[in-house]
Automatic annotation (TrEMBL):
Residues 173-195 are annotated as: Disordered. Keywords: Kinase, Transferase. The keyword Cytoplasm does not apply. Its EC number is 2.7.13.3. Residues 1-175 form the Histidine kinase domain. It catalyses: ATP + protein L-histidine = ADP + protein N-phospho-L-histidine. Residues 173-182 have a biased composition (Basic and acidic residues). PROSITE patterns: HIS_KIN. This is histidine kinase.
């Protein structure tokens, strides 16, 4: 219970909207805990978090939203594939890696996969394959906006219909604009801004 309350506080803290240096693995763990009710009946979650991941300069609240959207979508895809069969479970795997100056997050599921005919529309606002009342078509559009526009990153998808999907999110570990501004200050250095 204490872990859930702590995770909810971290997830919803007002300061979490501003960019700051964070332990991104902790963001992943908090988000997985907060959205447990979405996945616990259909899937097991496996975390493969890089213990050597450096602190990441990002908006933890917005990145928690990205993770939440991807995990919820993964759980729904698995639930759709299982079709109400209660003795089977899918798997959601979340990994973090440092790739040079980039953080790479992968969210994989063993769900339905994404049909080729709609792959180029999945990030469009209001596009959804869910029944009326179940999805708004905003989750992946918001995710794309946060990753690409606000964090200057990328989001890609690998999918096989009937087998599952992996979303690959990459964001810079350090904010290049902040580092540039800091190095322009007398005696400034990137470390003085993001440490």
């Amino acid at each position: 219970m204490a872990k859930i309350v702590r995770s909810m506080k971290e997830f919803s803290h007002p300061a979490a909207q501003a960019k700051q240096v964070v332990d991104f693995n902790r963001c992943v763990e908090s988000t997985v805990t907060v959205c447990r009710n979405e996945w616990k009946y259909v899937a097991d979650v496996e975390l493969d978090l890089d213990p050597r991941l450096p602190p990441v300069y990002c908006s933890p609240g917005e990145m928690n939203q990205v993770l939440l959207n991807l995990i919820v979508n993964a759980a729904h895809a698995i639930g759709d594939k299982l079709g109400g069969v209660t003795n089977e479970r899918g798997k959601i795997t979340i990994s973090t890696r440092c790739q040079g100056d980039w953080l790479e997050i992968r969210v994989s599921d063993t769900g339905t996969g994404i049909p080729e005919a709609i792959r180029d529309r999945i990030f469009d606002p209001f596009f959804t394959t869910k029944p009326v009342g179940k999805g708004t078509g905003q989750g992946l559009a918001i995710t794309h906006s946060i990753v690409v526009e606000k964090h200057h990153g990328t989001i890609d998808v690998e999918t096989t219909p009937g087998k599952g999907t992996t979303f690959i999110v990459r964001i810079p570990i350090h904010d290049q604009e902040e580092e540039k501004n800091a190095s322009d200050l007398p005696g400034g250095s990137p470390e003085s801004v993001i440490a």
